Fold this sequence. Notes:
Bound molecules: zinc ion
Shape: globular
Number of strands: 7
Order of helices and strands: HEEEEEHEEHHHH
Structural class: alpha+beta
Mean pLDDT: 88
Distance between the termini: 40 Å
Amino acid sequence: xxxxxxxxxxxxxxxxxxVRGPGPEDCWLFTSAIGxxxxxxxxxxxxxxxxxxxxxxxxxxxxxxxxxxEPWERALHGCDVPLCxxxxxxxxxxxxxxxxxxxxxxxxxxxxxxxxxGGRVAVRRGNAGLLARRERSIALREAVRHGWDAxxxxxxxxxxxxxxx
Length: 165
Ligand SMILES: [Zn+2]
C-alpha cells in the first residue's frame, strides 16, 4: 500500500525516477535501479523495515491512491516492457496496454501472448532470456537519460529481443 500523504517523500523519489513518453500510447519508464531480472527496483520502508519492490508493483499500488494491493494481485505488463510503470486499463479490444493488476493465471496467458516463458523457447533460452531482458532495460534507461528520445527508445527496445517483423 502507498499512502498519498504519509508516503509523500517516497512517492516524490519514485516520480523523480520516471521518464514519461509524451504520446498517449507511450510507456513511462523507471530509470533508477534495475534488478537482474530487468525490472526496476525501489527500496521503501514499511513498519520499520526496508523492503525492495519492483517498480511496476509500486506504480500499481500508487495508482490505488491509498487502497491496498492484494498479495495475489500481480503487476503485469501489456506492453512487455519491464521498466514500464504506467498504470493503464485495456484498449477498445480489451487488451491491457501497460501496467495492470492480474492473477498468476493472467500472467501465464500474457507470457504466452508475448512469447515469454512457458514454452520451449523459454526452456531453450533459459538464463540467456533473463540476461537479454536486463540488457534491454539498461539500454532503455540509457535511451531516456536526457529525456524521452523516441528513436533511442525504439532502438533500445530492439536490444536482445527477438524481432518478429
Ligand atoms: Zn508500457
